[in-house]
Amino acid sequence: MVVPDPRWLVYTLTDSASSIPGMLHVGAHPALAARPVPAVLDSSWLASGEDFRVTNPGTYERVQELWNRGEPPTVHVISDHGTWGTDAEALGEGLVAEVEGIDALEGLAFRGRPGFRYSGNTLDRVVLARRGVLPDWTRILVFQVQRPDGLGSVEEMLGSPPVNQFARLRTQLGPDVTASFRTASEDHPAFLLAVAGPRLGPHMIPTGFVLGLWEIRGRFGDARERGDYYAVETPKLAALRASLVGTVVDAPAVTHKRWA
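^ thats the sequence. predicted structure below, dont judge the formating
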């Protein structure tokens, strides 16, 4: 066995088409259960039921019914808190016992600490993430998100409107950011890039995974008013955001850039 990468340990399939959503299947990562692992282990493969076609034919047939109706099951994966070490045997030891009897809708605890839940969509974005290249034609401050405090989850950062996430993100930024951005203008724009730090979703969300991007303008304050900054939406930003969010930037670039 090998340690899963990205490191999620348990997945769930839910019949979300029913008036009362019901759990169809809760299973361990196939690598931890000594089962074949496909070359691309994404949400489509998990939702297909191939993982338990032989071991659980009744549930497999139900999953196929849902696919035939055009309502495939909803996929979630659950990652641990990244403190079990790297040995696959240690990861798998007792995992099945923990999974059995779990109310997966409420979450899963690993050694008494809650796991992190990610949707199939986020799993796909991580599995299929490509390398991103930061533009060299503008000023960019790269901020590592180490904790979801005040920001919600990774799911929320990727799915919420950018204006909402900016309002929550700026509470984590220090006064040095204000000083850096207060001179930004339409002629000399600046950008704030939020990426996953090494302690955010350890072993599941790659360090440098781009969570959000904002274009910044500054305000000059007089002697009685402190300068500030704010985010704006522009066509150029929309294109740049589409090309960067969900990619992984090289680790050397995941720092506070200093501008000339």
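The first strand starts at residue 10 and ends at 15.
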